[in-house]
């Protein structure tokens, strides 16, 4: 799990150096897309525990205030079955797994953000395109439903015909929707007032 351990260490580094970077340690939000969305989700869902906290700056928290996860894998065993061709490149190289669809590989479960959902989690904005042929939008829906089931404030924004990057071919109407939603979420979650 070195990828999430590094991300959590980076947040602790920021908190340890707030004066150097002129940061408010209580206003850290994670935003990631695709593999970055996977890591942002893991970060947000493990912030109240010491899970994956290793390395330097252990006197500081790796928790964030909120998360924006775009086109993110959230349930790796389900993704493996839904899109085996796009998942195959990650299976052995990233997750060191040889699991077949339907097999419950502990490595994939441990790396799945949805496995860490509980009622103490931070608010989430989850975004996906319905025409994503890399990470199916159902991955976003799985995380959204799990968060809602335990009462975590969450929003799900699905961009009709949006690709993995949310781009809708030949259209630009999706851009203001995404930008306004992201701006409103960040402003509300970090208590920034008017953007």
Percentage of residues assigned to helices: 40-55%
Q: Give me the number of helical elements.
A: 8
Side-by-side strand order of the widest sheet: 1-2-3-4
**What is the N-to-C order of secondary-structure elements (H for helix, E for strand)?**
HHEHEHHHEHEH
Q: What's the main sheet like?
A: 4 strands, parallel
Give the averaged pLDDT, no decimals: 93
Give the terminus-to-terminus CA distance. 36 Å
> How many beta strands in the DSSP annotation?
4
Instruction: Please compute the radius of gyration using only Cα atoms.
Output: 17 Å
Structural class: alpha/beta
Catalogue the unreliable spans: none
Keywords:
4-stranded parallel beta sheet; 40% helix; alpha/beta; 195 residues; 8 helices; single chain
Question: Overview of this structure, please?
Answer:
It is globular, with a radius of gyration of 17 Å. The mean pLDDT is 93. The chain is built from 8 helices and 4 strands, in the order H-H-E-H-E-H-H-H-E-H-E-H. Strands 1-2-3-4 form a 4-stranded parallel beta sheet, with helices on both faces. The chain starts with a helix and ends in a 6-residue tail after the last helix. With 195 residues, it is α/β, with parallel strands linked by helices.
């Amino acid at each position: 799990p070195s990828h999430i351990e590094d991300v959590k260490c980076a947040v602790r580094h920021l908190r340890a150096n707030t004066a150097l970077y002129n940061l408010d340690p209580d206003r850290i939000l994670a935003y990631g897309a695709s593999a970055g969305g996977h890591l942002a989700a893991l970060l947000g869902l493990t912030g109240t525990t010491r899970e994956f906290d290793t390395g330097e700056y252990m006197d500081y928290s790796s928790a964030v205030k909120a998360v924006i996860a775009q086109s993110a894998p959230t349930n790796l065993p389900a993704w493996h079955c839904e899109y085996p061709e796009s998942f195959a490149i990650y299976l052995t190289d990233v997750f060191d797994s040889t699991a077949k669809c339907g097999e419950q590989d502990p490595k994939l479960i441990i790396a799945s953000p949805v496995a860490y959902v509980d009622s103490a989690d931070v608010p989430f904005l989850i975004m996906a395109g319905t025409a994503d042929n890399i990470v199916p939008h159902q991955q976003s829906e799985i995380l959204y439903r799990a968060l809602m089931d335990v009462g975590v404030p969450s929003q799900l924004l699905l961009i009709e015909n949006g690709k993995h990057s949310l781009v809708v071919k030949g259209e630009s109407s999706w851009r203001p929707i995404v930008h306004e939603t992201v701006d409103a979420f960040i402003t509300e979650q970090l208590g920034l007032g008017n953007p």
